[in-house]
Amino acid sequence: MEPDDTAARPRETGAETPEPDAGDEAVSRSRPLRWWLCLLIGAAAAAVGLLPWLVGGMRLPLQNLWATDAPPEEYPLVLLPFSQYHLSLIAALLIVGAAIAGIAARATRRLRRRSGVAWTLIGLLSVQVSAIVHTAVVVSEGLEDRFESDLYLAALVAVAVLANLIGVAVMLLVASAPRAGAVIGLAVAAVLSSSWLGGLLLPDPALAGPTAEPVLFVLRWLPAVLVGAAIAWGGIGTVGRVIAAVVALALLWIGPALITAVSSAAGSRVLARRPDEMIDYAVGVFRSASTLPEIVVPPLVVAVAVAAIGLVGRLVVRRSRASTDHPDRSASSAGESPSVSESAEASAPPPSTAD
What we know:
Largest sheet: none
Number of helices: 13
Low-confidence stretches: 1-28, 330-355
Oligomer: single chain
Mean pLDDT: 85
Radius of gyration: 30 Å
Number of strands: 0
């Protein structure tokens, strides 16, 4: 009798789990992105974040404490819109750029070394910190020499630095954190997306006329759609991801109200000399903007609807992929059933002829 060598041969069934493509991994490990490419990615992301201000002309906004009576076209060129009327735009330019850097770093994580995130962050900060320093120096040289000017400039620099630090956290969350952390970082950027896109498409809404209505419609719902898309991308399959989804919705609820309160209070020249009344006014605006149902509820409903559609779509795509990856499971099951029935018929006793 010849030995049966079928046990030594691998099973050739369609249910076998496919092995990962080792060739792509070998290429990505042997030829990772160089450090200077990661540096350029971070710098380019920062430049894209500043794009609304760069394409708008980079002209410094009008200053109440400017030393001369220069017309607007003679104001200097700066890299950030330092003005109490553009606080939300300053934050958007820095934080959205950081989020773009994080997305690029996450998308290239299989092509870079672990130090690539650090180099991307260095490239991001090299542009953003330079923009803050350059703008602060230019504005300081043109303001009146008085205490109010120093306080005004210090407040603007503090806002820019705070936005820069938040941007660093957003970039690291999106680039390196698990999906739950990345969803939170993306939600922070999504809340500021309307300010960023508004600065790009509507630098001065008062001069846009009726053609601005479609753009304003998009700007109103853009944060909600992006938050919902981030939740759908992150999923809700774990406790951490569920918590991240709740935090993202909370940011969508609180973030716009906070931006409205700060912008309204800081943009009031009447309250500029009354800090206590300015704070009280900001608190009142925040309370109204965060509790009125007609303001709060619609964006949350849109975000939940977008997230639900995305999650259902992911589930459908996953099931369709599973069925296409193992198409012969049902066929093999169907092929085995006739043999089983045949063997059962063969082993059954012959029919009785007693009757």
